[in-house]
Structures are given as structure tokens and as C-alpha cells.
Amino acid sequence: MKKQAPFLYILILLSTLSCNNSPKQAADMPNNDGQKKWWKEAVVYQIYPRSFKDSDGDGVGDLKGLTGKLDYVKSLGVDIVWLNPIYGSPNADNGYDISNYDDIMKEFGTMADFDVMLGEMHKRGLKLVMDLVVNHCSDEHEWFKQSRSSRTNPYRNYFHWWPAEKGKPAFRPGSFEVDGSGWRFDSLTNSYYLHYFSYKQPDLNWENPKLRQEIYAMMNRWFKKGVDGFRMDVIPFISKDTTFPVITEAELKEKYNGAWDQYMASGPTLHNHLQEMNKEVLSKYDVMTLAEGAGTTKATAMNLVDPDRKELDMSYHFEGVSLGYLPGEFKQMDPAGYKLTEFKKIYSDWDSVFADKGWGTVYLGNHDQPRMLTRWGNDAPEFREASSTMLTTFLLSMRGTPFYYFGDELGMSNIKFDKIDDYRDIESISMYEQIKNKGGDLQRFLNGQKIGARDNSRTPFQWDASANAGFTTSTPWLKINDNKKEINVEAEEKNPNSTLHYFRKMVKLRKDNKDMLVYGRYTLLDKNNPDVYAYTREANGEKVLVLLSFSKNGGAFNLDKMQLGEEWINNQQPLKVNGNTISLQPYQACIIKLKTSAP
Ligand code: NOJ
Q1: What is the structure's pLDDT at 261?
Q2: pTM for the complete prediction?
Q3: Above 60 in pLDDT, residue 2?
Q4: Ligand 1, closest atom to CA 366?
Q5: Residue 62 near residue 105 (C-beta atoms within 8 A)
Q6: What is the pLDDT of residue 257?
Q7: Helix, strand, coil abundance in the chain, percent, nearest 5
Q8: Is the CB of residue 368 below 6 angstroms from any atom belonging to ligand 1?
Q9: Which pLDDT tens digit goes with each residue over 518-533?
Q10: Which residue has the CA at smallest separation from atom 4 of ligand 1?
């Protein structure tokens, strides 16, 4: 993995209506190797609830709004909804700062709204995966209020405190802080507390068994309610070296991955904690778990998902989404863009990690990343549809569970704000202030944010071409992209060739051909081709060829001895075949069955 600026936030890091989760039968619990599982076969659709649909006119998406749009979600053919945090929160980091794990954020509605939403999802055969944010909570959580009140409070050890009489604690990064520090001084008890993100997000002390039991009890409560899984926020961060040895900023910069893993995350207790969590919670239900595998590498990821270890089911890595940024800088794209050959290598190498054991994931966008179209395709009007459907073809024809971000099915693109005032994300705002304080180049920062900022993918969903895109009746919490005029559900439903219809077609193709497209062997072809990503998928003695042009110049592919059979999907007819050579149009994508016998 390329080195990235280390002190910034780089997480570059069944149901039926009535179904409360029932305990699993022993026979349902073999290890995963070679095992078919519903979460392996699923397409996950991630919804950023703040931006999906506002039902009460306050400019913020909410649960009732979402519930009203479940027929749309179902119509996509997806199986699982992953919802970003909806718990009680003062919203310093859009819900990733939880003040009450058993409540619903006021802007989003009530627990009764949640129950209706979950029931309506299950009625439609959709499963719900919630975000589990337990590396940290909010400084407004009762645990923290108690903890900070005195050094002898029973909750004191729920967090990491450093008494000031020992001097200043060793430097640790605080990603969303203008001064970059992960420690904050609290005069009430003359101590510092640790927060890897903003000071509003104090880190929980997982070395305290009482805290762990509280978390497991909370998870059990949600599973008993019937939720179908958790995506676990920065889960490797829960285990760190709590002696807090000195490590300088320079050292951290120098050996980012090593230092991070050694001192700050993936610590020696991580797997004990996850095995304990599995035993006390996860093993009791038929649910899916996904680690946000921040900092994990090809060498360490298996430890999280190896079925024999009984920890989690899947993890997602950051190697793919880090490609193309300049090393050592905050989200500045390499002017030359990213190299397709490197992209292919990353996804192929990660596929091989899980080829025989465990299970992988694939994604190109989420709420922490820009829009996939802008970042990995080409959002110029003439290439938008082609490159967007090409990326969809990639995501849905790879092995591993695809995590598809809402709005990508419409071809939504980055909003590319010009001014810092338009941003709402704590990451962009604090980094701007940090650069300003250092007298850095603010224009360069803003230009970089047009590609890399998280708010690019958090803009409201575009339902129609009206002033507020059918998202709200009042002022939206974040501006809506002007391209709502062409890019919206209403218009795309009417156009049989839209990216929306293509997405549905591609989801159906994956589901109709699970042996091949979900489980089948993956083989990269023509790895040095600079324009075309080509691979085969193979199962039961049959093979398909996937061809994806990642270039505005199209690209060529040599068939060698392969013989083309039936075309399964093609985002741009026709496929130009001349002898052994296929000439792809810009961003053309197709999947073609191969005739098994070569000439
Ligand atoms: C990862 C989440 O995906 C991101 O949105 C959040 O800011 C940090 N973790 C802190 O919780």
C-alpha cells in the first residue's frame, strides 16, 4: 500500500416481518470454505440516510423517507441495505459520534420509525446491516460524561486517560483536529483523553472487560430486534498499545504502516476481542459482519475473516481506493491519474488472498470516498453513461461481495465545490483550517477536494429534476448537484438505455449466474494492457470473458485462441471483432460466454 499522509483521516480508511433473529442451528455453522452463504451471494446497497429521502421537510433525509422508497430499493434487485449510523448523536461526524447506541438520531426519527422500516425491509426480502461504531463514541455519551467527572468514577476506565502530572502524553494523531493531536486536555480531572478522530469522538478502552460486555449486550439487543449484520467502523483500531510509547511524528510518517500497526491499531488483543465478540454475540445469529479493514494488508486481512478463527465474515481494504493519490499529501491526485495496470494488480492480488479460504469484497465508492464515476471513470457528459456502466460491470462481475453506493446506479458524480463554505464534512473543514494555520496553499487544497472530498458522495439523492431533486421540500443540508436535471430516477426510469436500467440488468445477471459470477474462479488476462481490464470467470467447466475499457480511447484486446460465444451483456453495441482482435469503444464493457473448445 502506498504511504499516505498519516495524520489525516485516511481510511483511505431472513428474514420475514416477524423475524427476530433466532439462534443458529449447529448444522448451519460449518466453516465458510467452499460454503455457499447468503452474504456471499448478496449485492449490498449502501444508503447514506442523511441524503436519501427527507419526509418531514427539514432538509435532512430520515427513516420515514427511506421506508417510503423501499420499493425503489427492492426494484434494483439488491439484497442487503447497509445504513450509515442512525443512532443518537450530536452529529459532529454525521453520526459516527454516538451518544446513545439504543436510540435513533432525532433528525432521522424515532425507534418506532426504525421498527416500521425494518419490518418493511424484511417484508420485501431485504436485509439490514447497521454500522457499528465502537472504537469511539461521542463525548456526549453518558459513559464519557461519567468518565470525565472524576478519576475515581466507575466509568473512568471506559476511555483512555493520561494524567497530566506525568507530562504530556506521547503524540498520537487526531484525524479531524486542526492541531492534528489525538489527545485533548480536560481540566476537570487534569488529564488528557485519547481520540483518534475529533475531540468529540473519545476512544473507548477495549482492554476494560466491562466496556466489552456493554458493547456485546448492545449488539445482542440490536440482533434480537432483527437486524441482519454489522459493518464495523475502523474495527482494527479497537486494539492499541495502551502504554502509549513515544513515537515521533517523523517516525510515524516514515514507517506509517509499521508504526500504525505496532502502536495504534491491530494491537495484540484485537483477535482475542473479536473471538470473544463472536462467541458472545455473532455465533448466536445468522448474520453478516464486515470489517472496515483500515490498515489491514494482504498479509493480515485473512486473520479477520478466516472462518476457522471465528471472528468476522468479510473485510474491506483501502489499497484500491488509495490508488492515484500523491504519497504524503492529503487527497491530491497524481496529475497523470492512476494506472490501469496498477488497478488490475491490486484487485487481482486481493482476489487471490481469498481464492481458497475466507471471502473478499469489492467496492469503488462509499460515504468516505468520492463518486466512483468521477474518481475511476469519466464524468464528462459524453462518457458519463459508458464509464459508469463499465464500472458497474466491473463491480458486479468480480468475485467477492460487491458493496454498491447509492446513486452510483444513476451515474451521480462529484459536486466539486469551489468554496470551503459549501462543505459540511468535518474532515474537509478541519483540514482547511489546518492548512490555513500553516500558511499552506489553500487553492491547491480546494482543487484536490474537488476530486477527493467525502462530501462529493454525500450530496442528496436525485429522485427527479425539480429544484430539490425530489429529496426535500426545503433547503437540503448539503447542496444538490446541478446535474439532477439529467441524472435522476424519474428520467432514467423512462429511458431503457439508462445507467439505472443497466445496473438492474447487471444485478440480475450476477444473481442468475451465481456459480460463475459469485463463486467462479477469476483469472486476469493481458495484465500489461494499459486500456483494457480483461479477465475470465470460470465454473462447472464453463467460462465467461469480461472486457472493460477504462479509457476514453477504447482499447484493443487479442482473443488469442479464445472463441466467442453468447454475449451476456454489453453497455455499447456492437462489439467490433476483427479476426482475433476486439476493438473496444471508449469505456465499453461486455461479458461474453466462451466456447469451451478452442480450434
Ligand atoms: C470511518 C467512517 O467510515 C468515517 O465516515 C468516520 O468519519 C470515521 N470512521 C470515524 O468514525
Answers
A1: 72
A2: 0.94
A3: no
A4: 3
A5: no
A6: 53
A7: 35, 15, 45
A8: yes
A9: 999 999 999 999 999 9
A10: 368
Q: CA–CA separation, 553 vs 224, rounded Å?
A: 53
Residue 573 has pLDDT above 80, yes or no: yes
Mean pLDDT within 134-159: 98
Q: Specify the ligand 1 atom closest to the Cα of 133.
A: 11
CA distances from 507 to 74, 257, 282, 302 (A): 12, 36, 28, 27
Closest to 267 in 3D by CA, of 135, 163, 155 = 135
Ligand 1 centroid distance, CA of 249 (Å) = 22
**233: Cβ below 6 Å to ligand 1?**
yes
Q: Which of 133, 134, 367 to mutate to test the pocket of ligand 1 (most atoms within 8 A of CB)?
A: 133
Atom of ligand 1 nearest to the CA of 97: 11
Q: Catalogue the active-site residues.
A: 233, 292
Q: Ligand 1 center to residue 490 CA distance, Å?
A: 32
Q: Whose CA is nearest to atom 6 of ligand 1?
A: 96
Rounded alpha-carbon distances, angstroms, from residue 396 to 364, 367, 537, 541, 567: 11, 19, 12, 21, 16
Q: Is 234 in the pocket of ligand 1 (CB under 6 A)?
A: yes
Q: CA–CA separation, 366 vs 395, rounded Å?
A: 13
Average pLDDT, the chain: 93
3-state SS of 451-469 is HHCHHHHCCCCCCCCCCCC
The string of pLDDT tens digits covering residues 399-449 is 999 999 999 999 999 999 999 999 999 999 999 999 999 999 999 999 999
Strand-by-strand arrangement of the 532-539 sheet: 521-525, 532-539, 542-549, 589-594, 564-570
pLDDT mean over 254-282: 85
Helix (H) or strand (E) holding 34: none
The residue ranges of DSSP E strands in 4-144, in sequence order, are: 44-47, 80-83, 87-88, 100-104, 127-132
Question: Which of the listed residues 84, 93, 177, 369 should we mutate to test ligand 1's pocket, taking the one with most ligand atoms within 8 A of CB?
Answer: 93
The set of cell numbers assigned to 104 is: 435513533
Question: Atom 5 in ligand 1: which residue has the minimum CA distance?
Answer: 368
Cα Rg for the chain, rounded, in angstroms?
24
Q: Ligand 1: distance of its center to the CA of 96 in Å?
A: 6
Question: Which value, to the nearest 10 degrees, does the dihedral of the CA atoms of residues 588, 409, 97, 218 take?
Answer: -110
CB hemisphere CA count around 209 (13 angstroms)? 3
